[in-house]
Protein 1
Amino acid sequence: MKKLLVITDVILVLTAVILIFAVRHDIRPAIAPTVLAEEMTPKEEQTTPIDIEQIQVENFESIHGYWMNPESDIADRKIHVLENAVAKNGRNFNLRYGGINEQTGQVYLWMYLKGIAPENGSRFEIYPKGTAIPVKLADGSIDYTGKHDPTFKEKDRIVMEGSARTVEELKSLVLYRDTEERYQNSWSNTLEKNIEKS
């Protein structure tokens, strides 16, 4: 018992000495790690710019990756582009160069299922950052100027369902490059496996 009291006294004396030393030498107490301000500031997107010339020769590398719209009112609004294919809602679609939209000057692809003629698929329109997406106005006319375009023009965008849409439709249909790749799902892994097989 006496030994235990001696050990306790020694620990108390050492603690007092350490506290006195810390106060006299202005040593800061240990604190939980914090995030530096520079880590909190958003980093600039480091993505490959969309290369229209390469897309025209069916090299889709500049649009590879995950595209999504977290603010869409359509469930699961995300895709994964890899090689010449797209994974969407658990299904794999092929991609083929379609042409240049005469009204917008933007490139589009055909997105289609195996066994279906590409022209019978959906238009897969690509809008590099800074370009306007056409908007169908209430009177039925189409605005090509970008005045009514509700999307973030500072980002690359894809609209898979083609043709001019209303402001509300565009808000839900547009997809943005997912620079953080937050939505990597098993269906995209399936896409990679299917591409390796072909």
Note: Confidence is low (pLDDT under 50) at residues 27-45, 183-188.
Protein 2
Amino acid sequence: MTALSYDNLFERAQAGQAGFIEVPMDGARIVILAEGQSGAIATRRLGGCSGLVILGRSAAIMAHIAPRPPTVQQSATASQQHFQTLLGQVEQLYVTYRGHFPVETTGLGYYVAGFSDITDELKAIANQRLTALGLNNQYTYYNVVLGANRRDEVRACVQLLGPGATFFYIEQRLIEDIRFPAPLPDRQASQRTGHASQRNFLAWADSAGRSVQMFYGRQVEPDFGRLSGIYDVYRADAQGRGTWLKFDFSTGTWIGTKANIEGDLDTFEWFLWYQIRLLPLRAYPRRTRTSPSFTEL
């Protein structure tokens, strides 16, 4: 990172360019990118503040935490309470958008050097709570900068250079370099996201008589024996009309407004039952030889 790079990043964020976020003091923000897209999240004027980042493959969370709330007198207790409040915002963002973070996701705290009597307590709090979220976590220190670059202009940045390269900098110093493996079709991916390239669902066309898996924007042959959890299933009938369904591969059941899909076992249902061997026939009510009626979700 260079000063020019930081300036360019902050200009993009202020202009509202997608994929670029500036985090204000006492704020926590998240950036979510499409698979393969590049972007960044950054903050400035750190001098004396603490912070947290959660580093993912195509998403990152950053918090910038002042030593205390602006209206409260400095004390160890005030610092800890304020830190925990912002840490709670980080936790909420992570839990809400957990589907965007792979198992290799890392949490990292950064603290000003030379104040161990305060920062040791903050490190312990962060370690306990990030570990409770199932995150690998660590910490680092930074020194305030004197001279031409004023001490309150210390900056930090997470760059996500898709696909799969995530970097964390404080000023020009590279703190963390993570190369995430490509997502695999048997891994859980976000089912609810605005980015089509992040989706993970099955698609079936009656005219083709076969199923494909749309995983991170690419077609793959589904390995039904390895799928687990709830998947969206898109079915296009012979006339091209589409219906969204949900199927739980862990239990072998359809999910909808009714316990099971009414009507006879048609080609689509038989296909799933044959492939995964999880759909016990007893899970279905007695069938009649009428056309199947799928519940639209």
Note: Residues 257-267, 276-297 have pLDDT under 50 and may be disordered.
